[in-house]
Amino acid sequence: MTTAPESRPADIVITGCTTLTHGGTGGTGDAADPMDPSDPATPTPSATAGDIGFLGNSAIVVRDGLIESITTPEAVADLPAVERIDARGLLAMPGLINCHTHTPMVALRGIAEDLPIEEWFNDWIWPIETNLTDRDIELGALLACAEMIRAGVTTFADHYFAMDRVAAATEASGLRANLGQGYFSSEGAAGLERSIDHALRLRGAAGGRITTSLAPHAPYTVDDGDLAATAELAREHGLLVHIHAAENKAQTAAAVAATGRTPIETLHRAGLLDVDVLIAHGTGLTDGDLAVLRRGTGRVAFATAPKGYLKFGWDPTPLRALASIGVPVGLATDGAASNNTLDVWESMTLTALTQKSSERDPAWLTARQALDHATTQSARAVGLGDRVGALAPGRCADLILVDLTGPHTQPVHDHAATLVYSARSADVLTTIVDGKVLMRDRRLLTLDVSRIVGELNPRLPALTYRGHGRRIQDYDPA
Q1: Is 245 helix (H, G, I), strand (E, B) or coil?
Q2: Hey, how many other C-beta atoms are within 10 angstroms of the C-beta on 291?
Q3: How far apart are CA 160 and CA 337, in angstroms?
């Protein structure tokens, strides 16, 4: 006989934490001392970006991979549980989401620095990528997953090659991911065929933690016919499309000169704005592109990775303009070859700061708005807006516990400001995905970094050799 769920012990009970809530379900709590477990939750709903609030001295019950309830420690004092976590002094929040990355590129971290984008691609990255083996890709993805777990990332959207190997790494790590097999039109029909084959075979893998997308590289490497075919396949199979477009202003100008269309106009002409699409970067958007985006009938979102833009001398993604037309923007790191880390916490801080600078407005992109981008908007961007990105009953138990007791985070006058401007990824103590603890007290439970690095490092000379003169592609943004 199967035991009724309500009579079984909970899988995890977390007590004494401050909880980041959405939708007015929690109090503002900003004056609460996170060190004081007796501080009562303020019942007044918060009126903030995304209705983000903070509920003091709370408890979270996790059962069967889902959040069952958010309540008080007193209410769960006698509730049987497989694991109880004393979270006094900690803040519980939704796990971060890396909305656009290339995980295997951690193997190229720091190898091509202080270069313009065309040299970075043509002289370094694309020659090296011709050397990639499936094992290189899997080891890179495993190392990336370990880095993200330690930085509080619970979901990532990946766009690369040999994605079966990235799927294997995802399954081993316990993370959640949307995976897309990247392709160029220079591969011929086989490129798109591999992308759709991967998307249909792997979606729902790892116990449902893996979703999939079609992943054409960009309008300047994928021709109009393949883009239109991608849109049709996405519509037929209900798939997300994950693509780079309008990456910078020079790329947009080159596209207009060569084709008479901006990259966004090319996506619209191909039908890609009428399906679910995640567009990486968008720092080269024009005013006219906003009207084009508004005409699309699909669910369009962008991913922003500000650290790389600063390094390449690009403008930031225009979040204020996209907000004005209701387009969500999730946070990302891009690959570690350009970003150097997969630290979405850093991306959140830089997003807030670069938006203030670019808009010349200290009141734009408040700390709560940055948290909204990091949680609900990121979840919507990767097509998981109804499953992750918020802590609420029935949502996936993808959450992190952040230590707010350090000298750099005390005192806490405003939890949102502390998270965005003071806390660091190293303050994440515990990472939970699908109700499973992947890191406890900074100790990884699913991956062995020393073993991964021990196998990866001897492979680097062969991987980084460029004397063969080959490139996987040529960077020509037109």
Answers
A1: strand
A2: 11
A3: 13
